[in-house]
C-alpha cells in the first residue's frame, strides 16, 4: 500500500476526481467563497507544484525544491492570468483579508515557543539581537561600498536598496521608510517606492533561494548546521521535548484555542502599545514560558497543534504567498545588472554578518544566518514562511518573527537616527 503513488497523502484514484471537481468549479466560476473554496484549490495546486519542485534536478538539490517552486509558479499563474479572477480573489482574500496567514503564524509562534525548553529560550534570546545587529551592519556597509565602486552611490545603495530589504518587508518597511526618506531626499514617497519596492521583492526572492542553498550547505558541511537547532549547546536539553508524541484530538483543539487567543491578545496590546501585534504576541508567549504560568500539558497541546498546522497547511499557504504577495512584475522590472548585484550584496552581507557574530555567541552558522539574516532580508511573515520552508527549518519561526517584526522596527529606528546625522 505504501508503494502506491500519492499526492497530499491521497492515492491517484481519489486525487484525480478531487482535482477535476475543484478545477471544473474554478473554471465555471462555481468555487465556493472563503475557506471552502480557497483551501481545496490551494492544496491541489500546491501539492502538484511541490511534487514538481521535489523531482526537478538542480531545483530540488540547490534551490529548496517544492516550496520555492510552489511560491514562484503560483506567482507566474497570476502573472500570465491563468487563474480566473473570481478564484484568484478567493485565494487572495483568504490568505490576507481572512487571516489565513495570521492563523498559520499564530500556531507556529505559540507552539514553537511553548514547545521550547525554557533554558534554551533564555540562552537563544540573549545572543539573538547581537546577531541581527551584526547582519545589518555588514549588509549595509558592504552594499554601500559596492554601490560606491559601481558608481551607483554609497548612500543611495544603502538607503534605497539595503535598508528597504533589511527593513521588514512592505507595510512595516518600505512604505514607512519612503515617508522618512521623502523629507531628507526631497522626493515624493511614490517616487521612492518605485525604487525601493523592486529591491524588497527581489531581496525576498533571493532570500528564499539562499534559504535552500544554506540548507544544502549545512548538509555538505554538517559542523555548520544544527539541523534545526539554533544553539550549539542545545543537544543536551532537547530530549525533553520529545515526550508524549501520541496525539488526542482534543489536544489539537486546545492548542488551536490557546494559539488564537495569544494572537488576539497581541492585537489587543497593539491598540495601546505602538508595536506590531506579532511582536507583542511573541513577547507575551515568551513571558508566559519564562514565568512557567502555563502547565506542561497545555504547552504540549500547543506544540502538537503547531506540528499539525505545519504538516497540513504549509503547502496551501505557500500558494497563498505566491498569488497574494509575490509580484513577478516587480521582480522582472528590477533586473539591471548593477541593481541586481547590490541586492545580492545586501542579502549575502546579511548572511556573512550573522554567521560571524552567530559563531561567537554560540549559534550554528546555518541556523543563525537563516533566522537573523535571511528573515531580516525577506518580506516579513510571508517571507519567513517561504524561507524556513525551503530551508526545512519551520521550528525556528519564533526567531524568524523576531527578525521580521522586532528587527524591522529596529531598522526604522536606526534609519531615523542615520538620517539625522547626514542632513
Brief synopsis:
InterPro entries: 2-OHcarboxylate_transport. This protein is mainly α and 423 residues long.
Question: What do these coordinates show?
Answer:
The protein has 423 residues and is mostly helical. The protein has two domains: 92 residues, no CATH class; 309 residues, no CATH class. 78% of the residues lie in helices and 1% in strands. Strands 1-2 form a two-stranded antiparallel ribbon. Helix 1 crosses helix 2 and helix 14 crosses helix 18. The protein is globular. About 2% of the residues have low confidence.
From the structure above, extract its key features.
423 residues, 2 domains, Citrate:sodium symporter, transmembrane, organic anion transmembrane transporter activity, transmembrane helix
